[in-house]
């Protein structure tokens, strides 16, 4: 098979990681995967490093230039599938009439409803398959009028890591200046208002009454950082919140943590939550969006009422107090990821859909 991926997002997020996993696997199996992306994109750089052929387009008017490039590549019938990995890519592939020359596949990662305009809907009606990353996203698509017969759920997946040994864990904690048995809570993601990081800082302020040395590591950057730093100062926990910024070697974050927190209010699935669970880190998240598809509360993680800081504090306290419970939660979480949310499974399910279309 020859698959052309299209992704015009310049930053590195969960969706770009999924595309790279797919392209690497396709090429490793003897199929061909190529990419259309904007110049300087994180996905483009990482794809080149993995020997994926990349077709770059300018950042300005990127959708128009991408449409021209897709048209050029597909009109000769060179690709079996055109896979649009994010919304701008969907527009470009549709403008290029990719659906007339190849099987047109769309990945849908967000729970926002589709636009009501005729042109907005025409893009999705042209797709042979729409791959929703969770049942929750699939339900939102159906509610907003997407063709249900073309929607299939393919959960995002993560590579199952080798668990860090004590020496590796010690080095990871040293990097973040965490000594001994100091409890380290953490979260990974862009710092935006709907990601809920404010609640983590408020929870930390309460947790320090029982766990005075407890610290919080926020890996990621974004527009909310100044407000979060100010809040930490107001609550007197500035010295206990580590604003790590964007961390490329993210494994050094997971290896250091005692508890992973994922307080997002609106998420299609949550790749960083999957990754944390794959590292056997006991995890706490809200009971909204698709999180119930990932976490079996009380078994493979803990779900608390959305936005409830008190319940968040109680859940973290339970994990920090009871090491046996914490260990069991982490082990069951990793088993859950291996069973349902591995990158290998994601790749196999996607390839099965490609083959079915061809």
Protein described:
With 358 residues, the chain is an alpha/beta fold. 43% of the residues lie in helices and 17% in strands. It has 15 helices and 13 strands. The strands form two sheets. It has a seven-stranded parallel β-sheet, with helices on both faces. Strands 10-9-8-11-12-13 form a six-stranded parallel β-sheet, with helices on both faces. Helix 8 packs across helix 13. The longest helix is centred in the C-terminal third of the chain and has 18 residues. It is elongated and about 65 Å long. The model has no long low-confidence stretch (mean pLDDT 95).
Number of strands: 13
Biggest pleated sheet: 7 strands, parallel
Kindly report the spatial arrangement of strands forming the biggest sheet: 3-2-1-4-5-6-7
By helix and strand content, what is the structural category?
A: alpha/beta
Stretches with pLDDT under 50, minimum 5 residues: none
- Overall shape: it is elongated
Oligomer: single chain
Helical content stands at 40-55%
* Count of alpha/pi helices: 15
Strand content: 15-25%
What string, H for helix and E for strand, traces the elements in order? EHEHEHEHEHEHEHEHEHEHEHEHEHHH
End-to-end separation: 9 Å
Mean pLDDT, to the nearest integer, reads: 95
Radius of gyration: 21 Å
């Amino acid at each position: 098979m020859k698959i052309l991926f299209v992704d015009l997002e310049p930053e590195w997020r969960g969706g770009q990681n999924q595309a790279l996993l797919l392209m690497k696997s396709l090429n490793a199996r003897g199929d061909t995967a190529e990419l259309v992306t904007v110049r300087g994109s994180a996905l483009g750089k990482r794809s080149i490093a993995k020997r994926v052929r990349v077709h770059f387009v300018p950042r300005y008017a990127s959708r128009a230039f991408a449409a021209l490039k897709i048209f050029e590549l597909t009109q000769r019938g060179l690709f079996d599938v055109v896979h649009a990995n994010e919304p701008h890519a969907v527009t470009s592939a549709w403008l290029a009439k990719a659906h007339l020359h190849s099987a047109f596949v769309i990945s849908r990662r967000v729970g926002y409803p589709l636009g009501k305009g005729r042109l907005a809907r025409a893009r999705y009606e042209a797709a042979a398959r729409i791959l929703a990353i969770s049942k929750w996203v699939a339900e939102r698509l159906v509610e907003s009028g997407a063709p249900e017969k073309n929607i299939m759920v393919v959960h995002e997946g993560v590579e199952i890591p080798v668990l860090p040994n004590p020496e590796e864990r010690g080095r990871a904690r040293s990097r973040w200046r965490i000594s001994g048995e100091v409890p380290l809570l953490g979260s990974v993601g862009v710092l935006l208002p709907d990601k809920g990081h404010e609640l983590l800082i408020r929870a930390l302020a309460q947790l320090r009454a029982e766990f005075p040395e407890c610290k919080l590591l926020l890996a990621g950057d974004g527009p909310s950082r100044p407000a979060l730093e100010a809040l930490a100062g107001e609550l007197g926990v500035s010295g206990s919140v580590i604003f790590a910024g964007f961390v490329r070697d993210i494994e050094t974050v997971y290896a250091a943590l005692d508890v992973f927190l994922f307080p997002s209010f609106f998420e299609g699935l949550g790749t960083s939550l999957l990754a944390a669970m794959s590292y056997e880190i006991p995890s706490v998240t809200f009971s909204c969006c698709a999180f119930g598809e990932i976490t079996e509360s009380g078994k493979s993680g803990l779900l608390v009422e959305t936005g409830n800081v008190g319940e968040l504090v109680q859940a973290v306290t339970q994990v920090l107090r009871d090491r046996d419970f914490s260990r069991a939660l982490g082990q069951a979480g990793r088993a859950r990821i291996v069973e349902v949310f591995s990158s290998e499974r994601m790749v196999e399910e996607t390839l099965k859909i490609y083959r079915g279309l061809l």
